[in-house]
Amino acid sequence: MELFHTPEQALQWADANRDRTVGLVPTMGALHEGHLSLVRQAKRDCRLCCATIFVNPTQFAEGEDLGKYPRTLDADLAGLADAGCDAVFLPTAEQIYPPGFSTYVQPPQVASGWESSSRPTHFRGVATVVLKLFHLVPTSHAFFGQKDYQQLCVIRAMSRDLNLPVQVVGCPIIRESDGLAMSSRNRYLDSDQRLRARLLSLALAQADQAIENGVHDVQALQQLMTQTLSAGTVVDAGGATATVPGIPVGGVDSIDYAVLLDADTLQPIEHLQQPFVGLIAARFGSTRLLDNRVWQPVQ
After folding, report:
1. pLDDT higher than threshold 90 for residue 288
2. CA–CA separation, 113 vs 119, rounded Å?
3. Which of 41, 76, 120, 200 has the fewest CB atoms lying closer than 10 Å?
4. Which of residues 171, 203, 235 is at a domain's end?
């Protein structure tokens, strides 16, 4: 596995492999099985895989966890090598944003709301760094996890609108054995918060079960998700409210959103007759977690 640290080295590697399909896997490090699944998918779809490890300062808002974001480079490189990664680009912030840097990408419409409501500059930073990486490591494909669903939509829209010659591939969420979506921020949770974090996937599962049972009212489904998150309860097969074994009494500490949206535009919907997505963002202390689920149209 090759390592390179400068933009010049990245461009040279990409140029040397211009006749091969190459899959790019951008990461911020602190890798887990979700990231490594992207590498394995890239290796299935492409001849080569190049990962990047860069904690991008421009996508963190003031007061967020940039300073304490976990750095686990040795373990990250070992995991990437085991997953079959061919090369890793490890730039510094000064190389990506040199002195005098002042050009940023205006995010597309799909960036509005949801994540941007609490992190208004987040997607400007995401879109800018991803565009730079696409130029510094020109590849045929780029692989992103579906867990950050709005981010995936933003990158797809940017690539389409700017005619970028890269196929953006969304990959399924990888979950822990109890359903929690894998995230680098899960390590911030204490034991009580970790148990309650299951409520995100349970809220989506509750909505799915209700849809299967014929509940197609968007507001009712959103209220069901919110109830599961806030109270830490579920509705059983008989329609009664019940606590969840193994989860402490009480729900998440706060809910940023729990909504059903059009899966492409992320606009609110009134019915379920188009592909739609359930998005959740909730907090446990200072730790903020995301989850989502996509459904096909319900007739």
Report:
1. yes
2. 9
3. 120
4. 171
Residues 216 and 163 in one domain: no
> Does 216 appear as a known binding residue?
no
pLDDT at 186: 96
* pLDDT for 76 beyond 90: yes
Q: Is the pLDDT of residue 295 over 90?
A: yes
Q: Among 171, 203, 223, which residue terminates a domain?
A: 171
In angstroms, the CA 272 to CA 261 distance is: 9
**Where in the sequence is the domain holding 80, given as residue range(s)?**
2-171
- Is the per-residue pLDDT at 12 higher than 90? yes
Catalytic residue positions, numbered: 35
Would the annotation count 201 as a binding residue?
no
Mean pLDDT of 4-29: 96
Task: Compute the distance between CA of residue 132 and CA of residue 141 in angstroms, rounded to an integer.
Answer: 15
Instruction: Report helix, strand and coil shares of the chain as percent, to nearest 5.
Output: 40, 20, 40
**Could you give the number of structural domains in the chain?**
2
Residue 235 β-bridge partners: 241
User: In 3D, which of 175, 221, 181, 208 has the Cα closest to residue 296?
Assistant: 208
Tokens 């097969």 belong to residue: 237
Was 185 annotated as part of a binding site? yes
**45 contacts 165 by C-beta, under 8 angstroms:** no
Residue 150 in marked binding region: no
CATH code of the domain in which 195 resides: 3.30.1300.10
Strands lying side by side in the sheet with 2-4: 2-4, 87-89, 48-53, 22-27, 141-145, 167-171
Output the domain CATH number for residue 9. Answer: 3.40.50.620
Q: pLDDT at residue 64 above 90?
A: no
Quickly state the pLDDT bin for 207 (edges 50, 70, 90): very high
CB atoms inside a 10 Å sphere around CB 294: 15
